[in-house]
Amino acid sequence: MKTRSLTQFYQDIPKLDLHYHLLGGVKLSTMQALANKYQVPLSEEDAKSYYRQYQIPGAKRKGGIEALTFLYRIMREPVDYQTVVMEVAEAAKASGLRYIETFWNPSDSAISYDILHPALVEAADLAEQTFGVIIRYIPSINRETSPEIAVEMIEEVIQHPHPYVLGVGIDYKEQNAPVENFWKTYRLAELNGLKKTAHCSEFGLHWRNVETGIELIGCDRIDHGYSIVDNPELMHKYALSGVPFTVIPSNTYFLMQWPNNTEWQQKQPIRMMAKAGLNIIPCTDDWYIHDTDSANCYRVMVEELGFDLDAIRQMIENSIDAAWVSEQQKLTWKKEWLAEFDHLRAQLIEEPMIDASLYTPYQKLSQ
């Protein structure tokens, strides 16, 4: 008997999130508690201004980067980070999320890496034991600081190696800090066996930032990368190469660019990336800051951006392939999780109705 609703399906299917900022998982109540703990002034109005779900049209608005900057300032003890990791894992389990690779910025933290790193490892172990959610870490460059600070950061990471620390990333405002400024940090990371990813062409910036991230820096993945649609030839090249692009269906820039929902649906570059055959991987970015979760991420991909469930299954397989885990682990997850996806799909009361005007087929290209 078929009894499963689409809402339940989005929640239950096994999912991975390879583009998620750890402090983006701080609840409003947790932010307020941390501010109170360290006696940092924070009115309820100011706190809510960081969170999309509480923002009032026309009111003063703060974005995700401002939220992360504030949180790094008020998280002053390892236990603060451990609390957040556990809250993230609990929310992940409720959303059907099994595996997370999460960014955090060591150079922004008030706690030295040698002290905070073991606490994060301990929290990841406890999260897996308690909730069955695997959390791994990607120390990330704050590109609004100097390349020299970034080098100092990666040298600290290299001095304290651990299998839970998988690679290096770069985030924050890209406009005046292209990824090539930080080539030395990436070179050191590569020489020490770390993977590489980078936020590129996130805010409508030029496609050459993606090209630089792949061709010059040698990134294993690209985070965002939407402006690649402005260069069809290069987009086709990367579709053939299979380089993964972690895309965010709740991306703030595009929601602000096209506040009319219908226009946003039609113009969202994720759909064009899929049609070109790019290896796209839906991710959440910041759960509480963006008022989303992993289940909602996949709901948007289907109900707002027009993908069918075959495409969703392919994207989950893409996520497994792009995860920075062993090949044996990937094979195990593909066998178990994709079979689970098929089983859950077979229980659906009905498949989603795809609007032909929105429908975006996805075809995985090969050379």
UniProtKB/TrEMBL annotation:
* One annotated GO biological process: adenine catabolic process
Q: Which GO terms describe its cellular component?
A: cytosol
Identify the keywords attached in UniProt to this record, alphabetized: Hydrolase, Metal-binding, Zinc
| InterPro entries given in the database record | A_deaminase_dom, Ado/ade_deaminase, Metal_Hydrolase
Task: Kindly list the cofactors needed.
Answer: Zn(2+)
The molecular function GO annotations come to:
adenine deaminase activity; metal ion binding
Cite the Gene3D superfamilies for this sequence: Metal-dependent hydrolases
Adenosine deaminase domain residues are: 14-331
Query: What family does this belong to?
Result: Belongs to the metallo-dependent hydrolases superfamily. Adenosine and AMP deaminases family.
- Protein name (database record): Adenosine deaminase
Q: Which organism is it from?
A: Vibrio renipiscarius
